[in-house]
Amino acid sequence: MSQHRLERSEQKLAMLLLIPSFLVIFLIAFYPLGSVFVTSFTNRTFASSVETETVGFDNYRKLLSLKIMKLEPIFDPDTGLQAIDDFSGEPAYQDPIDLLPRDPFRYKPLREFDLFGTRYVYAATDPKFIQSIEDTLFFTLTSVILETIFGMMIALIMIKNFPGRGGLRVAMLVPWAIPTAVSSRMWEWMFASTRVGVFNVIAQWMGYTDGQFPFLTDASTQIWAMIAIDVWKTTPFMALLLMAGLQTIPMEVYEAAYIDGCGAIRRFTKITMPLVKHTLLVALVFRTLDALRVFDLFQIVFAQKRYSMASFSYYQLIDNKMMGYSSAASVVIFFIILFFILLYTKISGGIQND
Amino acid sequence: MRTTKVLALCLVLLLAGTFSITAGGQQEAEEAGPITLTVAAGAVGQELVLAKEAATAYMSMNPDVEVIVLETPDLTTDRLGLYLQYFEAQSGVVDIYQIDVIWPGDIAEHLVDLNQYGAASVAADHFPAIIENNTVDGKLVAMPWFTDAGLLYYRADLMEKYGFSEPPATWDDLEMIAEKVQAGERAAGNQDFWGFVWQGNSYEGLTCDALEWVVSMGGGNIVEPDGEITINNPKAAKALDMAAGWVGTISPEGVTGFGEEDARNMFQAGNAMFMRNWPYAYSLGNAPDSAISGKFDVVPLPAGDSGRGAAALGGWQLAASKYSENVEEAVDLLMYMTSYEEQKRRAIVGSYNPTIKGLYSDAEVLEATPFFGSLYDVFVNAAARPSTVTAPNYAEASKIFFSNAHDVLTGKQSGAVAVRNMALDIEDLIK
Question: What residues contact residue A42 under an 8 Å CB cut-off, 6+ apart?
């Protein structure tokens, strides 16, 4: 009985002692987050004395409404065959601008695609935002995979003993140590659309272009340029984390495997991978969340040409002054990132249960 | 026990820190030393140097004032973003802002009414159109600093070399000359030579360039002063298609990523026949280190189907922040920086167009920049962007215009589709 009371009073004390931490967390995390949530339901204008009104879910509806509609082919009245579009030189279909609904928000075509011989249009009320989500997800997936592969390769080499290892380890970290603002400008220069840029010189030398290819304005290369910069910059970070993980594996395990006649590939898949798995997972979580929030790279190199999710939200807030709309975009980004956190928690939980 | 000691130590340090901060604060308040004024100025071309020189001159006249010139981003869109962050925080960090001709309507509520500080008497000396532009609800929120209009720069030496006597009067002439010179120069060994460079990046500068094409073709002013949205017409579509046709032929593919400075760098290195740019490029092009010094000249932009050429009205103003701690001193500095003498110095050293009418007949100014006299009409009749009629949504209206135009330049849509999208989007925005 007395023990019971003691337990309870200790619990009380624990709660009491936790209050300051809760207070701090509330102030620095929940309050700002909550105010973004609240603002996202208004039409608040940034840096202005314009009256703010509550608009319900309008911001979200405008951000996220998607529609897929079928386009009818256009026939040439003279020949009875499908007409040819003057601009693209391809078979003509109905103009999606006429077809798409305009109330309460106008749907704008994002892209057209064919499925089983029928043409469809994929439209959104804010195609730039949907595009920014697609771009950011593609950027995250590709860059994180590449960084993991290269990072692992570098880490495996760097843990070996060889002369000059110390110096090489320092050199390896240089790209990561350069501020993104500086390295983005540096790469922007290398990607220059004339032969000022080293990539154009190389591409011309290899016979791919005439030395005037606009890597940063051509839609097909834009995201790949971003991925190249990010992989260059962040692979060292990945390698560093993985190196720390690899160093915890005792050498004796490898020696035993070697004596038992285990080949290099089997040693990697059966010993290295399982033992470095936890470190790898932590590194992946770090990088994925970081890549999803990418802002500086896109803002510096692309400005208004193409957005990441974060630079879209920044544009809406700062340049467009639509604080409510920008907050709603931020909330959507928050949920996308939350989804990835939950996904990783689920995966890591699975590993721990092994 | 040890934890308690550590905690106690932390507490002591914290208290000591607080004390030193308070003490520092008091000290600062006691020395009522020189007033510091911060000017947020641009850094395109010689802007920064000229602003710093003006600051130094002002400080030598007013020893009790310290003037700091703050460098701001080159892209106008980025610069507005920076300013708005100061305004939202009602920050007094910056006292004087260099603001674009399109912003007064949008940010007037954060700016000081200069008429209350005796600016009205000076305002009459400036171009009335710009003073009107800077007057919001009867308040003069900014003093004109320099005006700008789009001009066509051309290489006079190459015109002669290829047997052309007159600079191009129409876009067709320009295309024809550019093609011939580009082919010739490339055959002569300069693989990086292009016919025509301009501002094609997806930003405010493209709004200016594209407005010039559209107006010269007779396609209207995007949104007319009475609020009618006129951009959806075949002439405007044709203008955009015409420019898209230059990309990859007489202009580099990369022109769709060019701002003012990219175009100038290429032209000044001797790698372009024609350039569309603002007047500031004139004195830089004639600098001793320029590859084309003395080899180029300036004319109005070519005419399109309307029979007339059009120049977009640009230019920058100086405005005092309402949140400044020394409004009176800030206005005094602002009036100095926009004064007759200072604008004259800037016109001579940097070929920045004065906004004071009298300077266009000043002998010293005309000697330094002869085209100020011959192109006076271009500056007075420049086409204004529809910033007043779309205020306070001009930034978004312009973004709709330039991003759709950019999509035409990069081949994502045709001019006809683009002008339709522009009209629909602008209607959604301002209706």
Answer: A52, A53, A54, A55, A324
B9, part of any domain = no
By C-alpha distance, which of B206, B198, B204, B237 is closest to B219? B237
> What does pLDDT average to in each consecutive run of 10 residues of chain A (354 residues)?
78 92 91 94 89 93 94 86 82 87 88 90 94 97 97 92 88 91 93 89 89 88 96 94 92 89 88 90 92 94 91 90 94 95 84 53
Residue A121: CA count within 13 A, CB half-sphere: 20
Residues of A in contact with B202 (CB under 8 A): 303-305
Which A residues in the span 49-78 are in contact with B, Cβ-Cβ below 8 Å?
49-50
The answer on pLDDT for B368 being more than 80 is yes
Q: Is A320 on the interface with B (CB under 8 A)?
A: yes
**pLDDT confidence tier of residue B32, bands split at 50, 70 and 90:** low
Subunit contact A87:B414, Cβ cutoff 8 A = yes
- Number of domains chain B contains: 2
Backbone angles phi, psi at A133, to 5 degrees: -65, -50
Exposure pattern of B258-277 as b/e (b: 16+ CB <10 Å)? bbbbbbbebbbebbbbbbbb
Q: What is the pLDDT of residues B277-309, one digit of tens each?
A: 999 999 899 999 999 999 999 999 999 999 999
Q: Do B84 and A321 touch (CB under 8 A)?
A: yes
**Strand, helix or coil for residue B98:** strand
The answer to whether the Cβ–Cβ distance between A303 and B203 falls below 8 Å is yes
Domains in chain A, start-ordered, CATH in brackets?
67-124 (no CATH), 128-353 (1.10.3720.10)
Of A95, A213, A319, nearest to B81 by CB-CB distance is A319
Tell me the pairing of strands B272-277 and B151-155: antiparallel
- Asked whether B148 and B279 are in contact (CB, 8 A), the reply is yes
Helix segments in chain A, DSSP class H: 2-25, 31-39, 58-64, 96-99, 127-158, 165-172, 174-177, 180-190, 198-205, 219-247, 251-259, 264-267, 273-292, 296-302, 309-314, 323-353
Contacts of A351 (CB under 8 A, 6+ apart): A277, A278, A281
Report residue A43 as tokens. 């039409």
Is B399 in Cβ contact with A320 (below 8 Å)? yes
Look up the domain containing B81 and give its range. 35-149+314-380
Packing angle, helices A180-190 and A219-247, rounded to 10? 130
Chain B contact set for A105 (CB, 8 A): 428
SS3 B135: strand
Helix B76-88 and helix B204-216: axis angle, to 10°?
130
DSSP state of B352: P
Distance of CA A87 to the CA centre of its chain: 34
Q: What is the pLDDT of residues B409-425, one digit of tens each?
A: 999 899 999 999 999 99
Q: What are the CA-CA distances from residue A214 to residues A148, A195, A220 (Å)? A: 29, 10, 10
Residue of chain B minimizing CA distance to A191 = B254
In a domain, B21, yes or no: no
| 3-state SS assignment for residue A118 | strand
B115 and B247, same domain (yes or no): no
